[in-house]
Specification:
By secondary structure, the chain is α/β, with parallel strands linked by helices. It has 12 helices and 25 strands. α1 packs across α11, α2 crosses α11 and α9 packs across α10. The longest helix is centred in the N-terminal third of the chain and has 21 residues. The structure holds flavin-adenine dinucleotide.
Length: 435
């Protein structure tokens, strides 16, 4: 049987960045297993592609994500410049469309600085000032985050994979973890097609399936999750000049901030609107509600039943979920949500559907969505669940923090530390000291 010192499951941006840091600091056989044919084929390669500056993240309630996002902007900027990767610092205008939201963006101005942004990166704008910058945008006021940047996270992840491989990490594609068993004091990781790897330690970064992989090892049994497909529509070339920056809205439901579609400027210049958040049964269900009846039944009867049952007796949640489905089926309904701040956009300007991505949100036993990532320790294993937005932005700093935590917990004592870390674009100690 193949043996490894460490196995990471999941080649999204989280698992790949983790493999990058660990292989730069340690010798030994580090294997990343990924069920797809390459890295970032799921959420990490199907998102909005924005490096989010953390002005909108509560400095206490979302402290880790805010600090990681803030530092990682600088890390990605250095990385993109050294590797010559697309980097479009076009800025985001987050608009308020009612008086309550106008008050909210004033709070964002304080949060930006509290989260470590330079005060010059953000500006509070009146509706008239927004019109001067973006004549086709209607609002009562806005915060302008000048350094929000458009990138392509699939390209970033592929580039990190190359660096990890050059440092000795191995990537095994087409390996879907189906079962993890204990054997002679080690773990045996088995794939759907019968491949096996024995390892001393396992890290679960399986994105939309992270909770299922954790449950295989009796970890996080109190949690369950729901999957939401974020869909986009591409804007015609003729209308792409309508707005030149990202336009976001202050979330209508601060507890479920991923419900509001935006106007997005992609790193390659294309304009899209989206994403919505359509409730679906599976973490790779890119069309319809479920990939077959089996997936649907599995999701409905998946344990624990109580978490979802509590959410599904919440009338507000059901109303929101049905509205999101309407915006999936009807282009007009999706458009209407964006016309509230770009009224000139018309149905014929939305020429084709964009690439949808899926968000998997963990629900606690009280039926609440959890906001931050969840880190859980298991027997010879560590699990990261609920690694959601702005997870792609914060991944370099967040994974460095994870490595430092795992070192302190003594999880890497079986690995040989390199006398000098492999020289890369980022400096591990500098990152940890800045967090
Ligand atoms: C619609 C949408 C828009 C977003 N926009 C942004 C944005 O603009 N900016 C930002 O910072 N963040 C954004 N995010 C969030 C960000 O994309 C995620 O936080 C991040 O990509 C999560 O990375 P991950 O590696 O945890 O997950 P993933 O990218 O999903 O990677 C997990 C990997 O695990 C693999 N896997 C799953 N199960 C198994 C198994 N059993 N065995 C082996 N492999 C397995 C999968 O194939 C997958 O490749 C967005 C998210 C969504 C859904």
């Amino acid at each position: 049987m193949e043996k490894a010192d460490l196995v990471i499951s999941g080649g999204g941006i989280l698992g790949t960045a983790l493999a990058y840091w660990i292989s730069s600091l340690y010798e030994g056989k580090i294997v990343l297993v990924e069920m797809a044919e390459d890295v970032a084929r799921h959420t990490s390669g199907r998102n909005t592609g924005v490096i989010h500056r953390p002005f909108y993240l509560h400095p206490e309630k979302r402290r880790t994500f805010a600090r990681c996002a803030n530092l990682s902007y600088h890390l990605w900027k250095e990385y993109a410049s050294a590797e010559n990767l697309p980097w479009k610092e076009i800025g985001t205008i987050e608009v308020a469309t009612n008086d309550h939201q106008v008050e909210h963006i004033k709070k964002y101005m304080q949060w930006a600085v509290q989260n470590g942004m330079d005060a010059s990166e953000v500006e509070l704008l009146s509706g008239e000032q927004v019109k001067k910058l973006e004549p086709h945008v209607d609002c009562l006021g806005a915060i302008f985050a000048k350094t929000d940047t458009s990138v392509n996270y699939q390209i970033f992840t592929e580039s990190l994979k190359k660096r990890a491989v050059s440092q000795g990490a191995q990537f095994k594609f087409g390996f879907k973890v189906q079962d993890v068993a204990s054997k002679n004091g080690a773990l045996v990781i088995r794939s759907v097609d019968g491949q096996e790897i024995e390892t001393s330690f396992f890290i679960n970064c399986s994105g939309g399936n992270a909770i299922d992989v954790a449950h295989m090892m009796n970890v996080g049994k109190e949690y369950t999750d729901l999957h939401f497909r974020g869909e986009y529509w591409e804007v015609s070339q003729a209308k792409s000049g309508l707005v030149s920056r990202n336009i976001y809205t202050v979330p209508k439901h601060p507890d479920i901030p991923f419900l509001d579609p935006h106007w997005i400027v992609r790193a390659d210049g294309r304009r899209e609107i989206g994403p919505n958040a359509v409730l679906i049964a599976g973490s790779q269900t890119y069309e319809g509600f479920a990939n077959g009846l089996g997936e649907f039944l599995c999701k409905v009867f998946e344990r624990p039943l109580g978490n979802k049952a509590r959410l599904f007796t919440n009338a507000d949640f059901l109303k929101l979920a049905s509205e999101e489905w309407v915006s999936s089926i009807s282009k007009k309904a999706m458009l209407a949500r964006v016309q509230k701040f770009i009224p000139e956009l018309k149905a014929e300007d939305l020429v084709k559907r964009g690439t949808a991505g899926i968000r998997s949100s963990v629900i606690d036993p009280k039926g609440n969505f959890i906001k931050e990532a969840i880190e859980l320790e298991g027997e010879k294993s560590f699990h990261i669940l609920n690694y959601n937005s702005p997870g792609a932005t914060g991944s370099p700093a967040y994974t460095a923090l994870l490595v430092s935590k795992l070192e302190k917990l003594g999880k890497f004592t079986h690995l040989k530390k390199r006398p000098i870390p492999v020289k890369g674009i980022w400096d591990f100690n500098k990152v940890i000291n800045s967090l």
